[in-house]
Amino acid sequence: MFEEALAITVYIPFDSQPDLSALDLPSLSAVCQTLPKVIDLLERSRPIGCLGHYAAAYELSIGLEGFTPLEGANPTQGEIGQRESVPTLCFKTYAPGGIAQEKVEAFLHALISIHPWEHPAIELHRAQLVRGPADAT
Fold this sequence. Notes:
Helices cover 23% and strands 31% of the residues. By secondary structure, it is of the alpha+beta class.
């Protein structure tokens, strides 16, 4: 009934203020130019993003990131020593629990290379997914 998985979550800043009344992929991509790049990477990175008979599966949610750039930082947004808050997209996908570490590391390196932040916020954690009826055997 359960399937081991690796949850991968990355926080992506908007390039401009999102219109929260237009929550569709074209509208979000227009104000977050990194999003289509992340989706393209996911489409090329199977089995990352695969759930059952679906590929490039992901979830998007909108959040707010807060931070204070310290001396030596090169912030994309904000100034050294000043508290900053920016709207972000939370992009979440899954990889099979038994995926080779090298495959995950290659995905993460590619993700970091397209992310606009100096230190991207990327989370990895083990998860248990409930199998759907089509996956039951």
